[in-house]
Amino acid sequence: MADNLVAQKSAPWSADFMKDPIQDHLLKLIDSKKSRSVKRGEAPGRPQKVVSIFDALKKSLQEEERKQR
Question: Computed over its alpha carbons, how large is the radius of gyration of the chain?
C-alpha cells in the first residue's frame, strides 16, 4: 500500500522544483547595481573641487576681522 502511494505521488525530478523567486529577484537587483557602479580601474569622472575646511575658516575669520576694523 505504501509503495503504491509513493509510486502515485512520484514524478521525475525537474530543475523547476528548485526555483527560488527571492533569489531570482536578488540576482536581478545585484546585476542592476553592478551596471550602475563604477568599474574598477575607471576614473569616476572629473573630481570635485576639494575645499579645506581649515583654510575656509581661516579666510572667513580674516574677513570678519577686516569688517570690524
Answer: 32
Mean pLDDT within 36-59? 78
Cell of 39: 568599474
Dihedral in degrees, nearest 10, Cα atoms 54, 60, 65, 68: -150
Q: Model-level pTM?
A: 0.34
Q: CB within 8 A of 38, min separation 6: which ones?
A: 44
| Number of alpha helices (DSSP H) and beta strands (DSSP E) in the chain | 3, 0
* Contacts for 44 with CB less than 8 Å, ≥ 6 apart: 38
